[in-house]
Design goal:
By secondary structure, this protein is mainly alpha-helical. It contains 9 helices and no strands.
Length: 166
């Protein structure tokens, strides 16, 4: 099987990841295109000692991290829930965002994620925890409960606190 045939099934997932990482489809696709161009230009440099999916993402990360470009969160004005999610992800540090997206969205293990971003598995777990804590901080809200029945008010308060709000 050719390298292109090995990589083809993974490209839609790499595009999804690139969009989530960069914040826009255009930027994500540009990095995926650059990744594929680098592989075509020098197929001997493609990591063959690992699974082709890992090699593809590793090549992508080498290009993305060398670009040193910060995303423009206002560039791709997405409305609704997707826009809110993108804005929240943009506030997370880049390395934590990578670790979270690679493990939660792409399903990589902490060991594989560590290989991709150049960190050990315990550091990956710490980065994911940091990203999740930041998302939790962003979504926490103060809630005013107006209810004249004390038992119902206490039940609502319990529900609100269990959801992480104050």
């Amino acid at each position: 099987m050719s390298l292109g045939q090995e990589l083809a099934p993974h490209l839609p997932f790499l595009r999804r990841y690139a969009r989530a990482l960069t914040g826009t489809q255009a930027h994500g696709d540009a990095f995926v295109r650059a990744t594929l161009e680098a592989i075509v230009a020098s197929p001997s440099d493609f990591p063959r000692d690992v699974d082709s999916r890992l090699g593809l993402y590793r090549t992508f990360h080498a290009i993305w991290s060398s670009a040193n470009i910060e995303e423009d969160p206002g560039h791709d004005s997405t409305d609704g829930a997707e826009g809110i999610a993108q804005a929240r992800l943009a506030r997370i540090t880049p390395l934590s965002r990578q670790a979270l997206l690679l493990t939660a969205m792409e399903g990589f293990t902490p060991e594989d994620t560590g290989y991709l971003i150049g960190a050990d598995p315990s550091e990956v777990e710490s980065l994911v925890a940091e990203a999740l804590a930041e998302i939790e901080r962003q979504t926490r809200a103060e809630v005013l409960i107006i209810e004249d029945e004390p038992i119902i008010a206490m039940d609502i308060e319990t529900i609100v606190r269990d959801l992480g709000h104050m």
